[in-house]
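Sample intake sheet
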Amino acid sequence: MISRRRVVPPLLRQLGGDRLGLGQAAKSAVSEELAPRTRTADKVVQSICPYCAVGCGQKVYVKDEKVVQIEGDPDSPISRGRLCPKGAASEALVNSPMRETKVKYRPPGAADWEELSLERATDMIAERIIRTRRETWEEETDEGQPLKRTLGIHFLGGATLDGEENYLIKKFFSAAGALSIENQARI
């Protein structure tokens, strides 16, 4: 059976009471059958956009343990439901087939990357921090004034870190004696 909507052209539907074409006259047979992806979600998880230091709130819609939609969170006091184009497209970031999911390492002088376990990569980073701190440690000046610092370790954090993560990073690298600790959000 063919519906009346498929037979009557949009212009005539407009003349039939929807003169501005903002209601029934604008609907097509295809759009009438559409349903929002968020309607079928199993759960909604509150999150924060990973792109910059603003910290816009996001609602992440999950179905069958897969992200199906990400929208701005209207309850967020920061963004009040709005997202920039990058934040609005973050679902593509999560579900991209090109997304790296393994730790990659390129040894010095090598042309190719190799996969490492997260534990091995963490051990390598820790060993290098400890070695660099030991090799570049400055206990005191030539005049005997205490320095207790290293100029061999510098840290530049990314804006996707939240306040708590930045606080802990600052505390850790300060305790290690580093002086140059910065975050991309301030640059």
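Comment: Residues 4 and 29 are 10 Å apart (CA to CA). The domain at 37-95 is CATH 2.20.25.90 (N-terminal domain of TfIIb).
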